Amino acid sequence: MHRFIMTACLALGLGLSGPVLAEDWALTPEETYERVQAEGDELLFIDVRDPVEIMFVGFTDVVHANIPFRMVDTDGWMEQNNHFAMPINDDFADAVGRALEERGLPEDAMIITMCRSGSDRGEPSAEYLRDAGFPNVFYVENGFQGDPASEGEHEGQRVVNGWQNSGLPWSTDMNRDKIYQAP
């Protein structure tokens, strides 16, 4: 029901008042694409993945900017998890503020974040930005690659949902003008 109300409000261009529940922060890839096509000049759509991840996985030029929420720290090997640490990008909120400014948008403009799966960085980055004073932040449910198949020929491969599997525009090419470069 909350999702229906939010979708209706978005479609009608109405703002939401009162507390927003975490599940209301999620937009499907298709909703995001439609929103960016209809009102792209009035919002900021950001890919919050590390630029190196984008280089190997793919990118959609529909995003306005790549501003990583977490970045790989090759000096921070985490023995217990058997991978590199990915601390929060200290420049994240400031970089989002700068991106809004560059687009001539206020801090309360709609911001949509997208990561690989929606859960590891998409939703947390939206919450982080809300806590940092940006009140109108959403994330792309299932992210760029989506969920892995749980069975069948493609078991373990990210082929279930997400931007890449929804027939939306994407490429293995990166747009240098949109990819984050550390200050």
UniProtKB/TrEMBL annotation:
Transmembrane segments: none annotated. GO terms for molecular function: transferase activity. InterPro entries: Rhodanese-like_dom (IPR001763), Rhodanese-like_dom_sf (IPR036873). It holds the Pfam family Rhodanese. The keyword Membrane does not apply. It comes from the Bacteria. Residues 146-183 are annotated as: Disordered. The keyword Disulfide bond does not apply. Residues 1-22 form the signal peptide. Residues 174-183 have a biased composition (Basic and acidic residues). Keywords: Signal, Transferase. Residues 162-173 have a biased composition (Polar residues). Residues 39-156 form the Rhodanese domain. This is Rhodanese-related sulfurtransferase. The lineage of its organism: Bacteria, Pseudomonadati, Pseudomonadota, Gammaproteobacteria, Chromatiales.
